[in-house]
Amino acid sequence: MENVVFSTWGNWKTGPDRGETDDLPAEFGQEKPLKAFMGWDGLFVRDAAVNIVDMAREYAAEAMKQSCGHCTPCRTGTSRMSAILDRICEGQGTEGDLDTLEYLARFIMNTSYCDIGLTSPRPILDALTYRHEDFLTAVREKKPVPKAEYAAKVTAPCTNACPSHLDIPGYVEKIRLGKWDESLEIIRNDCCMPGTIGRVCVRPCEFNCRRGLMDEPIAIKTLKRFAADRELELGIEPEFDASESKPDKVAIIGAGPAGLACANYLGLRGYKTTIYEALPEPGGMARTGIPSYRLPRDLLRREVSVVEKLGAEIKYGVNVGEDITIEDLSKEGYKAIFVGVGAPESSSMRCEGEDAGYMCFMTGIYFLREVAFGRRPIEGKKILVIGGGNVAMDCVRSALRTGFEDVNLIYRRTEAEMPADPIEIEEAKEEGVIFHYLVQPIKVLAKDNKVSGLECLKMELGEPDESGRRRPVPVEGSNFVIECDAVVPAIGQICVVDCVLPDDMELTRWKTLVVDEMTFQSSTAEVFGGGDCITGPDTLIAALAAGKKSAKFIAKYLETGDSQPEDEEWMEKTISDLGVFDPKEKMPFKGQTQRPKLVALDPEVRIQNFEEVESGISSAEALKEAARCLRCYRIGLAAV
């Protein structure tokens, strides 16, 4: 099973490639081989016993089922292809059917509106072209072809890039049709905080949008916000079809995005949850690490209230590990426990003086936490923030809003290597933040135990490091000093889940909780974990996705005592291993359309307070933007 016996995957126009194919997925579950795969980029077979004709029949049936019906070629063509393949597999086909199949496949691919039609005939056409004898044999022998076991999954480049695998083309299409409420229903299937994510997501979907190969990516995040905002504007309370209430209770540690998502989706399954939160308010890093000018507090509270209505009780001011332990929770009758603590501590700069306890030296995480609760954490006029990510951007922009007049950002690479959202960088510049590139702090300076400056080195870029970015190299003898009143390092976060867990639970060397990568179950059967405490610092949408997926396997564990992955999870892994987005794809048109530009408050106005900076888009703009979507669905079918 190590070798691919037949493949056209990724090489459709030039025919089968029996060469370098060992990187194609080989497993579909634990000790369960992936026998063959059919999809948008061809097919490959690892088990010679797989009947290609039967697999083509199953794939055609899935294509017919997924066709939206908006255009005749796909709607009618896939139906006819499916009927023909059914007839062949029933032993009633003719050789003329094969010619018809090939004609229909090419016709659908050349004339369909969306990618269900444009891509789904491809593997069937490959099979007809390169395994023609298999089809001739089925036609000539006139024997029924037995049905094998298959697993199917629909994806898209944007969907695959989203950690929660949100049906993005589906909800965008609903907005195009003016059905924002149905769009929001689709969003909430996989993202329980649409208003929040619609404002602060880092948009991996948009960087994998095929429209971006033509002109500009679809404004996916903005459209999500539009649907959520419409509900707010109209004063509509969301309704859910939750399952009948279950007797077992689940404890959740942390009211951050992962914990809230876990509670939300357990609530939909009928499970009551109790969330233990150390802070006085919910939201975790979304509450304390994202300033209100990006994420309004009333919106966050409202989305948390939706989770509470589904059966979650939040107990504030409780430090699990100190006030109560995981063992205590088990004794209190909780049948499962989800650990969703974040990464609330800051990484070290490895800079002389950072541990000296100087006044006006404060980590970025703590700085933002103080600002979030309405306090000015540091006094002074000139501040230096060290870092190049979104936390650093939040720190410099918050510093302006808390009264600093001279705000500076120190980064050891150039802007091209900055991991922060380009929009955040641009808005920080508009607001007057001064950027210092290729600068490395080496010593915090102080006078009378108070920060007075920062000694730095100039840097130059060398070869790329493990992150893919060019490594900063010190320029010898280039030391210089920047005088300032305050220094705030914002260079990374670390996890502290070890403070919560019993000593016998398995941790990685980075002190993150070890869990199964698909089920999120730890070595202690009733304990699950998700979010930053298993991955290290990651995105908000990744934490929501982990909470959602954990809820599914927690419910399965409570109901069956088992939490093994199902075909759906293995299909997601197989598709992710194959990759869906091709950045080198040649698109037929260039520069046809533009995405809407969000209106922001004027810089001189917005730095005066923490009011939301960006507005949403109008209904007309949303409909126009949704119409730009290419609806890039792809179908994958695995023989298992």
CATH superfamily of the largest domain: FAD/NAD(P)-binding domain
Give the uncertain stretches in residue-range form: 12-20
What structural category arises from helix and sheet content? alpha/beta
Count of discrete alpha- or pi-helical segments spanning 4 or more residues: 23
Our count of domains comes out at 4
Q: What is the correct CATH architecture of the largest domain?
A: 3-Layer(bba) Sandwich
The CATH class of the largest domain is identified as Alpha Beta
Radius of gyration: 27 Å
Shape: globular
Arrangement of strands in the largest sheet: 1-3-2-20-4
- Biggest beta sheet attributes: 5 strands, antiparallel
Q: Using the coordinates shown, work out and report the CATH topology of the largest domain.
A: FAD/NAD(P)-binding domain
| Helix content bin | 25-40%
Beta strand count:
20
* % residues in beta strands: 15-25%
Mean residue pLDDT: 94
> What is the first-to-last residue Cα distance?
12 Å
